[in-house]
Amino acid sequence: MWVYRILTTSPHYETKTPGFLSHWLRIGYLVVTVCISVALSSCSQPEEPPELVIDESVASDFQALAMETWDEFLTVFQARTSCFGDVRLRATRALGSRAAYDPDSSTVTVRVPGTPAMLQSALVHEWAHHVEFQCDEHKTLRPAFLEALDLPPDTQWRPEVLPVNTSADMPSEQYAEATIVLVLGRRQIPNGVRITGNAIRAIEEWTASD
After folding, report:
1. Is the domain of 34 the same as that of 65?
2. Most confident listed range (123-127, 155-159, 166-170, 193-197)
């Protein structure tokens, strides 16, 4: 009799099992759908570009010029924006040079006042150094850039010991000055740093690749 009950009630369980499994299959389907949707959503969202963080020492007119110039800089370096981060900008009246970049704090300091041409050139020059210090991929540019300057491939990029009078022959400085021409169209403040058309094209080709 006990065996009979099991046999007679087993169809009862069999009729419930498909519904039970169907319930959990629906839940599993929903979970998978949500996970896929979240993953696709995160993949489809572009990475935020690096930001220019303005210090309170920067006057409003300089800030407007800096933001406009930053947009031009990012347009040129668009394919490389994932390899360098935000950069800070501060202004000062007490600086021995027109501008300086501190890689430890990712801060560009610019001497004010100055003409728009002077300020723009200083900004782009130092932002070029920002990319140089922050972007590991920047090392892939250097062989082509040295070749464009007709320099030996083993030339030091930033030599510790400089010539007595100038750093004009330092590849790092030549790269920063060439970037000014690439971003702004011309070097607005002439100086003794040597650049060539081939050097500018080498940077342009690197910024366009990823």
Report:
1. no
2. 123-127
Which pLDDT score, from 0 to 100, does residue 104 have? 96
Exposed (0-12), middle (13-18) or buried (19+): which is 4, by Cβ within 10 Å? exposed
Considering the chain, what percentage of its residues have pLDDT values greater than 90? 63
Measured CA to CA, the distance from residue 191 to residue 183 in angstroms comes to 17
The number of distinct structural domains making up the chain is 2
My answer on whether 13 and 100 are in the same domain is no
Q: With beta carbons less than 8 A apart as the criterion, state whether 127 and 182 touch.
A: no
- Does residue 181 sit in the same domain as residue 98? yes
* 22 and 63 together in one domain: no
CB burial class (10 A; 0-12, 13-18, 19+) of residue 186?
exposed
Is pLDDT of 121 > 80? yes
| Structural domain for 82, as ranges | 53-157+166-208
Reference 189, options 125, 121, 129, 126; nearest CA is 121
